[in-house]
User: What shape does this take?
Amino acid sequence: MDTTAIITFREFLEAFLIIGVFLGMSKKLHLKKEIEITLAAGIGFAISISLAIVTYFFGDYARGIFTEEGAEILESYLLIFSGFFIAYVVFSLHNILRRSRGGKLINAHKKLQNNAFDFSLFLTIILIVAREGFEIALFTASTSLFSTFIQNVYGLLIGFTSASVVGIATYITYVKFPIEKIFKTTEYIIVLLGASFVQNGATELLKHSFNINIGSILRFPLEFLPQRNTIIGHLLSTLTGIDREFSVARLTIMVIYISFIYIIFFKKDHQITPIKSS
Assistant: This one.
């Protein structure tokens, strides 16, 4: 649920900001297309939420056909896969999808100048918003298997509501939110989630497949933390990878993962191009 809420917030916030740009242009240029844009956005959001819910329904069905032991082993592999996949999504695949969306946005902006009802503009806005739903369904398809259907739906609604509050507040009050900082913060949170997934997946895989409990290797004295089977304990373990059995070995796995992600994705974005002397 936690991962679904974070990814949903990130994607829907982008959709709300895009719609805010359309509404702002229409209002500023007195084009009177606010109703048309809002209706198209509403249809797009309905499609987006439906796509995600269908994905979670099939994920819930898939969870039910495995035995308890088989489900635990599968979950271990999926946790490890999801840890690397969501990092790839945020830093690579998402940028590719965003660039391909750019051309559609430019064409849509041009069509706003047409005072008559433009069906192609209407359809373009629907597709732009619905595409966010497709990305949410794609990006959370594997992680949704770790929660029940209703938990994933709650996460979807929490993310949507949070994004709508920020997006609508930005448009109505014209408050300049540090959007780049918001996206950068979610990137860091998703990296931490990825490290937690990989570490928990490796821990469970070693325990169930090889009978190796790395949680007992130089364990930290964290008995004061809530148990993992409680709501708070589960949230803490999911978001940070830390629970009562957190150990140096498990921390090492997270550090290796974060270092790998930094080298592959972060470092190349901060490389300084040397200045050639004339």
In short: Helices lie at 2-28, 34-64, 68-111, 119-139, 149-173, 179-210, 231-240, 248-269. Residues 54 and 137 are 9 Å apart (CA to CA).
